[in-house]
Write a structure and sequence with these properties.
eight-stranded antiparallel β-barrel; alpha+beta; disordered N terminus; 144 residues; Lipocalin
């Protein structure tokens, strides 16, 4: 027979505080400075980072040597591109996409957070997990 632990106001409060810390972790970077290109490159190169938005997985990006990247919006198709520094922003350009996307990246206790340069609040992307495995890309119109 197992012994059940009683839920006390203290354990309930501790659980609530832990939950609030997890939920607010992406916002913890707001008071800090954006990562420099050197910091971003040291953190990301050789990794595949998974990003979330508003509690759901949003996309995956593999960071290759030479500031090259491979992005997938979780649909199995990938876009190859590069990134470069513009002030404190990290800007991405992808093959076949003429527009450049610039972001501010911040370190947080749970990884990194990305804020789109033209964004005035909310909607930040945050790292949910990372891997050393390459992205698996099926390519356009496979099986059609």
């Amino acid at each position: 027979m197992t012994r059940r632990q009683a839920v006390t106001p203290f354990t309930l409060t501790a659980a609530l505080v832990a939950l609030l810390c997890l939920v607010s972790a992406p916002r913890a970077a707001e008071s800090g400075q954006p990562m420099s290109a050197a910091e971003f490159e040291a953190y990301s190169t050789g990794k595949t980072l998974y990003y979330g938005y508003d509690g759901i997985e949003y996309g995956i990006e593999q960071y290759l040597p030479g500031r090259r990247v491979r992005w997938s919006a979780l649909d199995g198709e990938c876009l190859d591109g590069t990134w470069y520094e513009r002030g404190r922003m990290i800007c991405f350009v992808y093959e076949g996409k003429p527009e450049h996307q610039c972001w501010f990246f911040f370190r947080t206790p749970g990884g990194i957070m990305a804020r789109y340069a033209n964004q005035t609040g909310g909607g930040d992307l945050y790292e949910t997990r990372q891997s050393n495995d390459p992205l698996l890309c099926r390519g356009p119109e496979v099986g059609v």
